[in-house]
Design brief:
With about 120 residues, the chain is mainly beta. It is about 0% helix and about 50% strand. The strands form two sheets. A six-stranded mixed sheet has the order 2-10-9-4-5-6, with no helix packed on it. It has a four-stranded antiparallel sheet with strand order 1-3-8-7, with no helix packed on it. The termini are far apart.
Length: about 120
Protein backbone atom coordinates (compact mmCIF):
# COMPACT_ATOMS: atom_id res chain seq x y z
CA UNK A 1 0.00 0.00 0.00
CA UNK A 2 0.97 3.61 -0.43
CA UNK A 3 3.01 4.93 2.48
CA UNK A 4 4.59 8.31 3.13
CA UNK A 5 6.64 8.85 6.27
CA UNK A 6 7.96 12.28 7.18
CA UNK A 7 10.91 12.88 9.47
CA UNK A 8 13.38 15.59 10.37
CA UNK A 9 11.18 18.01 12.25
CA UNK A 10 12.14 19.54 15.55
CA UNK A 11 12.63 22.74 17.48
CA UNK A 12 14.95 25.41 16.18
CA UNK A 13 15.70 29.06 16.84
CA UNK A 14 14.87 31.74 14.30
CA UNK A 15 17.47 31.79 11.57
CA UNK A 16 18.16 28.09 11.96
CA UNK A 17 17.80 25.27 9.48
CA UNK A 18 16.09 21.91 9.25
CA UNK A 19 15.93 19.27 6.56
CA UNK A 20 12.73 17.31 6.27
CA UNK A 21 12.53 13.94 4.55
CA UNK A 22 9.57 12.01 3.26
CA UNK A 23 10.27 8.36 2.56
CA UNK A 24 7.71 6.69 0.35
CA UNK A 25 6.77 3.21 -0.77
CA UNK A 26 4.01 1.34 -2.53
CA UNK A 27 3.93 3.31 -5.76
CA UNK A 28 6.12 4.40 -8.67
CA UNK A 29 7.68 7.41 -7.01
CA UNK A 30 9.23 8.96 -10.12
CA UNK A 31 5.85 9.12 -11.86
CA UNK A 32 4.34 11.47 -9.32
CA UNK A 33 4.55 15.12 -8.45
CA UNK A 34 5.42 15.44 -4.78
CA UNK A 35 4.26 18.21 -2.47
CA UNK A 36 5.12 19.64 0.92
CA UNK A 37 2.29 21.25 2.82
CA UNK A 38 2.20 22.77 6.28
CA UNK A 39 -0.48 23.55 8.80
CA UNK A 40 0.05 26.16 11.47
CA UNK A 41 -2.06 26.14 14.64
CA UNK A 42 -5.52 27.48 13.91
CA UNK A 43 -4.86 27.82 10.18
CA UNK A 44 -5.68 25.84 7.09
CA UNK A 45 -3.17 23.56 5.49
CA UNK A 46 -1.19 25.38 2.81
CA UNK A 47 1.02 24.30 -0.06
CA UNK A 48 4.66 25.11 0.58
CA UNK A 49 6.48 23.55 -2.37
CA UNK A 50 6.15 20.99 -5.12
CA UNK A 51 8.44 19.14 -7.50
CA UNK A 52 7.70 17.22 -10.66
CA UNK A 53 8.69 13.60 -11.21
CA UNK A 54 11.19 12.26 -13.66
CA UNK A 55 11.93 14.25 -16.78
CA UNK A 56 11.82 18.02 -16.66
CA UNK A 57 12.04 19.25 -13.12
CA UNK A 58 9.70 22.05 -12.28
CA UNK A 59 9.19 23.64 -8.93
CA UNK A 60 6.63 25.67 -7.08
CA UNK A 61 7.30 27.63 -3.93
CA UNK A 62 4.92 29.65 -1.85
CA UNK A 63 5.92 33.30 -1.77
CA UNK A 64 6.50 33.07 1.97
CA UNK A 65 9.31 30.52 1.55
CA UNK A 66 10.94 31.55 -1.72
CA UNK A 67 14.68 31.92 -1.36
CA UNK A 68 14.71 30.08 1.97
CA UNK A 69 13.32 26.60 1.25
CA UNK A 70 14.49 24.11 -1.36
CA UNK A 71 12.56 21.04 -2.42
CA UNK A 72 14.41 18.11 -3.95
CA UNK A 73 13.89 14.44 -4.61
CA UNK A 74 15.90 11.26 -4.96
CA UNK A 75 13.96 8.92 -7.23
CA UNK A 76 16.34 6.05 -6.49
CA UNK A 77 15.44 6.32 -2.80
CA UNK A 78 11.77 7.24 -3.36
CA UNK A 79 12.29 10.17 -1.04
CA UNK A 80 11.47 13.85 -1.22
CA UNK A 81 13.23 16.48 0.86
CA UNK A 82 12.60 19.99 2.07
CA UNK A 83 15.64 22.00 3.08
CA UNK A 84 14.51 24.88 5.23
CA UNK A 85 16.91 27.72 5.95
CA UNK A 86 16.54 31.08 7.68
CA UNK A 87 13.55 29.75 9.58
CA UNK A 88 11.06 32.22 10.99
CA UNK A 89 8.45 32.03 13.73
CA UNK A 90 5.74 31.84 11.04
CA UNK A 91 7.27 28.63 9.70
CA UNK A 92 6.03 26.79 12.79
CA UNK A 93 3.56 24.04 12.02
CA UNK A 94 3.10 20.43 11.07
CA UNK A 95 4.68 19.63 7.72
CA UNK A 96 3.16 16.98 5.50
CA UNK A 97 4.23 15.41 2.26
CA UNK A 98 1.75 14.35 -0.37
CA UNK A 99 1.85 12.68 -3.74
CA UNK A 100 -0.19 13.57 -6.78
CA UNK A 101 -3.14 11.42 -7.79
CA UNK A 102 -5.23 10.74 -4.73
CA UNK A 103 -5.36 11.85 -1.13
CA UNK A 104 -2.17 10.17 0.04
CA UNK A 105 -0.61 12.03 2.96
CA UNK A 106 2.05 11.29 5.49
CA UNK A 107 1.44 11.60 9.21
CA UNK A 108 3.28 14.88 9.44
CA UNK A 109 6.34 16.13 11.30
CA UNK A 110 6.29 19.04 13.72
CA UNK A 111 8.49 22.06 13.11
CA UNK A 112 8.70 24.62 15.90
CA UNK A 113 10.61 27.86 15.52
CA UNK A 114 11.04 29.59 18.85
CA UNK A 115 13.58 31.54 20.81
Amino acid sequence: QVQLVESGGGSVQPGGSLRLSCATSGFTFSAHVMYWYRQAPGKERELVASIAGSGGITYYYADSVKGRFTISRDNAKSTVYLQMNSLKFDDTGVYYCKRSGGAYWGQGTQVTVSS
